[in-house]
């Protein structure tokens, strides 16, 4: 089996849906029995019939058929078309988790004044250099400085000032003797050890000087960056905003979660699942719900949602080789194309830029498992690109297959699985169900996608395979 983990950038053949390899925390697999080695290769068996893919020509290349395109080509088209939202100014707390869109230059020095780094006594290093426990040095204590507004003070030879952490340092002092190194005297203090000059002192501008950059463009804004922004006097900052993603479901068979389905009807789970996935990817996601069945009302809904979104995400079982009502409505709003993509599950995918602002519209399959797989492969990278993230794709690992795996020739297969750390090092992975299964409960137990490339039809137990851990927020 030839596992694929392309660590390259976006050049060359375009974006890959799985490329980087990194260590991730996983549960530990049970140890192998003593003497047990790698499982033998599974005997060749016919590839089972899978829902969706139509077998490709014998050479297995997706490009051999003009009706089927590779995963990379479809992903490249989407990533090339998604917009870069204009930067906006937000309050610093609202900017948490976003990327800074400006170089924030400090107009202040941090610290703003010479200050004590801990509780102790401000003194001259020359006065305490010879202090030992056996022969302490005594200094006269001329006052006390605490954190907060205070008048500048000074000390001379043989004098000390009691100081608290963060308090203004008196002029003439070049060291703070920790209180634990003294007898804690109030009128006279016995210093039992003398630190070198500059110890436990924070000088003006040691952290940031006026004119220094505090936060750079492209820096993720977390608690530390918010702390620094507040320290340099910024209560607002320019950031890359979260893209607005509107999620809709298409299908006459769909009913809302609060309704009891009649025979032949199914609950609309995709609008909930995809909205949650979009939020996890960093977007501001809005769940509109089930598209109306009336053509005029359908067009009105699509037009209104195009006006409020940066990206429209629609799930549905769209007509193959023809147009259903939703496809016709989308086609009336711009260039929308539906194609077969060489992947399983869910080869039927759609993409276009619609409306006055040419908003990207991504259509994914209506079957819930396939919808979430398509989200991982196509939508999540698009959202992260719109956020300005450098790492568009989930990191992958190479894992040992715990059992034989089969895949249709010419299609990249994505199987939900569970990946664990192997007691001997590395990872071991097993699928949560058969390749033909599309069960929500099994998908909910998975913690990864197993990725089998187009030119691989079977993987023996013990073979290496690419695994994409599905870490929340990862």
UniProtKB/TrEMBL annotation:
Keywords from the UniProt entry: Magnesium, Metal-binding, Molybdenum, Molybdenum cofactor biosynthesis, Transferase
Region (Disordered) residue spans: 1-43
UniProt cofactor(s): Mg(2+)
Record keyword NADP present: no
EC numbers, comma separated: 2.10.1.1
Gene Ontology cellular component annotations, sorted alphabetically: cytosol
Pathway(s) the chain acts in: Cofactor biosynthesis; molybdopterin biosynthesis
Biological process per Gene Ontology, one example term: Mo-molybdopterin cofactor biosynthetic process
Compositional bias per record (Low complexity), positions renumbered to this chain: 34-43
Composition bias type Gly residues, residue spans: 1-15
Recorded family membership: Belongs to the MoeA family.
Function: Catalyzes the insertion of molybdate into adenylated molybdopterin with the concomitant release of AMP.
Stated name of the protein: Molybdopterin molybdenumtransferase
Originating species: Blastococcus saxobsidens (strain DD2)
